Amino acid sequence: MPSRKGEPFRWDALVRLTHWGVAAVCISNLWVNEAGEEWHEWLGYSAIALITLRLLWGLTFAKEDARLGALIPNGDDFRQQVRDMRERHPPAPGHHGSGKLAVWAFWLVVLATAGSGWFQNTEMGFELGADEWHEWCVVALQGLIGLHLLAIVLTSWRQRSNLVTRMLPAIGRRASIQSGSNEQP
């Protein structure tokens, strides 16, 4: 496990894949595709599949901070987060307390958005006004995205660490250091 001052923490490849996959689906369906288009629907199904894959990964093969159990916040997580932000400590591996809550909120809202999108196209969903539910979920999702981006910027600044690099693949010299190779790229 990387130390706070040693090599930087990076999420594993499947966590990064599902994160950026869901981000691409959200960007596409919120701001690029027209609602009701076939691509819009297929991307919604893709979001469900990506989150399901991530949940299964977190229950089975994921290690340490990527396990679902590590994403259950407790009071100590929030107290540590306040201390780290106040004292400007470098971020620890994984998520802090509010980050753990945000992960669950995102998964639930993305699933609710995709699910209500599917449900509104059924006879029962049409009768129950699922199109309104879908619109509420879209608004909630856009709010979460804005809050997520703001939190990344604020936390990166406050803790003097670029948190985005945790979701990027290690490239160049860092990749060779992390793999244990002494060769220069």
Concise account of the structure shown:
With 185 residues, this protein is mainly α. The protein has helices spanning 13-32, 38-59, 75-87, 97-119, 123-127, 130-158, 172-178.
Provide a descriptive summary of the structure in words.
This protein has 185 residues and is mostly helical. 64% of the residues lie in helices and 0% in strands. Helix 1 (13-32) runs antiparallel to helix 2 (38-59), helix 2 crosses helix 4 and helix 4 packs antiparallel against helix 6 (130-158). The two termini are 24 Å apart. Residues 175-185 have low confidence and may be disordered.
Helix content: 55-70%
Give the structural class: mainly alpha
Q: Shape, please? A: elongated
Q: How far is it from the N-terminal to the C-terminal residue, by CA?
A: 24 Å
Strand content: under 5%
User: Please, how many helices?
Assistant: 7
Order of helices and strands: HHHHHHH
- Overall average pLDDT: 89
CA-atom Rg in angstroms: 19 Å
Low-confidence stretches: 175-185
Total strand count, please? 0
Described by strand count, sense and barrel closure, the largest sheet is: none
